[in-house]
Amino acid sequence: MTNSLPFQHILANQVVIPNLLLQKYNKLGLDEIELVLLIQIHRSISNGNYFPTLQELTSMLTTDEQTCSRLLRKLIQKGFLKIERQENSQEQWSEAYSLEPLWEKLFEPVKEERVQNEDG
Amino acid sequence: MTNSLPFQHILANQVVIPNLLLQKYNKLGLDEIELVLLIQIHRSISNGNYFPTLQELTSMLTTDEQTCSRLLRKLIQKGFLKIERQENSQEQWSEAYSLEPLWEKLFEPVKEERVQNEDG
Amino acid sequence: MTNSLPFQHILANQVVIPNLLLQKYNKLGLDEIELVLLIQIHRSISNGNYFPTLQELTSMLTTDEQTCSRLLRKLIQKGFLKIERQENSQEQWSEAYSLEPLWEKLFEPVKEERVQNEDG
Amino acid sequence: MTNSLPFQHILANQVVIPNLLLQKYNKLGLDEIELVLLIQIHRSISNGNYFPTLQELTSMLTTDEQTCSRLLRKLIQKGFLKIERQENSQEQWSEAYSLEPLWEKLFEPVKEERVQNEDG
Question: What is the DSSP track for B20-88?
């Protein structure tokens, strides 16, 4: 007897990542833990949670809160991540992570050092 | 001057569809409007809306509510779609669409008529 | 006994579609068969086949070659699709479909009639 | 003036990853570099390259070949990865990575220690 999750559960719970991020993160000076932290923030945003807490992010890594906090600051300083203020439909303000600086580095290579041809 | 949507908006709002669905829908006896209706239900489920209303589904197609309702009944009768009762964490019951019958037809080909080799 | 396809086969053979295409195709004047044709071209390109033949595209629809050919011409005339000449690494020229006009309509809404807020 | 990559290039070059992998890798005893190595193998397979070389895999990480080789052996020993012999349509045999053991751990939780409720 099989006890797999339903296919629907598998198919409806996936995250989409640009190949370029996986091809270029090391050339951009990121290491694996920083890459995984960026992917986890992208996954949260894709699921509608724009500002996961430090506790939530730490629980998605193998590290502790102090290290996770330091990594977040470093990603912001190096220009991969920013925090923005957002106004929702009830005119309430909240903070949100934005990965736009990361995507611009990957997809607008002329602004940055030219990213070489795909699939290295 | 460019006025594109932010990359983050584009990347965080996508839906993932099995190639097999796009390869086999016509061999399974589905036409394009039925395929698109199934895809829209899959998109709703992926976004956490498990029971889109008839009005919502109709607004995602080029058809009217009467036709959309007829298509839903036909998909259920033909065994591509079912409606299930779900209990949430507050012990409230609600209805939900399930595409599990569709995915089983595609991914468990032995039960059904054998689906031929990929990418036809 | 279960005879599912391997998970790896399911997970490695998927196509990613922007939500905006599924939300806006009817407002852009496309019907379901045109939408599915565009999705099939996008799937071919994603799989590295940039210029699927008329036979290949027709086999992915419920229609015949004559209708498929007419639909392709219509999509080009309406500015959703174009055919480009590409030079490969062996300096050989070939033709390729480009969906860039479609993506620009969806993601650069200011150029076109303004696409309203998400998830309508 | 903008110099973005074409939308088509961005949209056609993405990889799809199950949320469960990102939610559970640390509970399965994997660290970030092992996770990224598994993701890179999944990306290769999704792109039709079933047996990336050690050199290719190393170039996708921040590590050296010796460490990458050690990680591959560890992933195989711990039951996340296996190497299979495949016969192609010309009756030639070749080796291929399979991530089926990883997906089974994630999607057939009863066989393994029960994976707790989603989105931890």
Answer: HHHHHTTTTT--HHHHHHHHHHHHHHHTT-SS--HHHHHHTSSS-HHHHHHHHHHHHHTTS-EEEEEE-
Give CA–CA dist D33/A36, Å, rounded.
9
pLDDT in tens, D51-98: 999 999 999 999 999 999 999 999 999 999 999 998 877 888 899 999
Residue of C nearest to A18 (CA): C16
Please give the pLDDT value at position C118.
43
**Residue A13 to residue D18, Cβ atoms within 8 A:** yes
- Pairing mode, strands B93-98 and C14-18: unpaired
Kindly report the nearest CA distance between residue D31 and chain B, in angstroms: 25
How many Å lie between the alpha carbon of C62 and the closest alpha carbon of chain B? 6
CA distance D66 to D70: 6
Is there a contact between A43 and D60 if contact means CB atoms under 8 Å apart? no
Q: What is the pLDDT of residues D92-117, one digit of tens each?
A: 889 999 999 999 999 997 654 444 44
Chain C to chain D Cβ contacts (< 8 Å): 46
Other chains touching A, judged by 3 or more CB pairs under 8 Å: B, C, D
Kindly list the structural domains of chain A, giving each domain's residue range(s) and its CATH number in brackets, ordered by start: 18-107 (1.10.10.10)
Over 60: is that where the pLDDT of D48 sits?
yes
Note whether A80 and A101 are within 8 A (CB).
yes
Specify whether the CB–CB gap between C44 and C56 falls below 8 A: yes
C17 to chain B: which residues are within 8 Å by CB? Answer: 14-17
Q: Most D CBs within 10 Å: which of A44, A61, A62, A67, as the mutation test of the D interface?
A: A62
More confident residue, D103 or B116: D103
**In this structure, are residues A68 and A54 in contact, taking their beta carbons and an 8 Å threshold?**
yes
Q: Which residue in the set C2, C10, C16 is minimally distant from A2, CB to CB? A: C2
Question: Which of the residues C22, C28, C103, C111 would you substitute to probe the B interface, choosing the one with the greatest number of B C-beta atoms within 10 Å?
Answer: C22
D42, HSE (Cβ side, Cα atoms, 13 Å) = 30
Mean pLDDT score, C20-30? 97
Enter the tokens of residue D84. 């299979």
pLDDT, mean of residues B51-76: 98
Q: How many CB atoms lie within 10 A of CB C38?
A: 21
Kindly tell me if the per-residue pLDDT of A2 is higher than 80: no
Q: Exposed, middle or buried by CB within 10 Å (0-12, 13-18, 19+), for C31?
A: middle
